[in-house]
Design brief:
By secondary structure, this protein is an all-beta fold. The chain contains no helices and eleven strands.
Length: 125
C-alpha cells in the first residue's frame, strides 16, 4: 500500500494562494491520484485528480483556480490553489489508487484506496 504525506496547508486571506504537496512512497505503474477536501459537517468531496495518462479532472468550483500537477521523479503530487475564498476552508487529503480511472470516477472518493492524513487550509475574509 502506498504511503501518502501531505504538506503545504496553512492560513491565508481571501484572494491568496497556497500550494499543497503530497509525497508518495511510490507511484503505481497505472494510477489515479487526487485531492479531496472535507469541511466540518460536510462530506468529503473531490477537488482535482490526475491519472498516469495525464488526464485531469476538476470539480466545477475549482476550475480556473486550482491546478493539479505531478513530478514523477519525486513521486510528488501538487495542488496549486489560487483566488482562495472562505468556502475553500477545509482539510485537504491526498488519495491514490492503482487503477487509471477516467471521467467522473477520478473525483469519486469511493474509488481510492490509499489516503494521507490531511493538511488544513483556512481562508479568512
Amino acid at each position: 500500500q502506498v504511503q501518502l504525506v501531505e504538506s503545504g496547508g496553512g492560513s491565508v486571506q481571501s484572494g491568496g494562494s497556497l500550494r499543497l504537496s503530497c509525497a508518495a512512497s511510490r507511484f503505481y505503474a497505472k494510477y489515479s491520484m487526487g485531492w479531496f477536501r472535507q469541511a466540518p459537517g460536510k462530506e468529503r468531496e473531490g477537488v482535482a485528480a490526475i491519472n498516469n495518462d495525464g488526464s485531469t479532472a476538476y470539480a466545477d468550483s475549482m476550475k480556473g483556480r486550482f491546478t493539479i500537477s505531478q513530478d514523477n521523479a519525486k513521486n510528488t503530487l501538487y495542488l496549486q490553489m489560487n483566488s482562495l475564498n472562505p468556502d475553500d476552508t477545509a482539510m485537504y487529503y491526498c488519495a491514490a489508487h492503482s487503477v487509471s480511472w477516467s471521467g467522473h470516477y477520478l473525483l469519486d472518493r469511493r474509488y481510492y484506496s490509499a489516503w494521507g492524513q490531511g493538511t488544513q487550509v483556512t481562508v479568512s475574509s
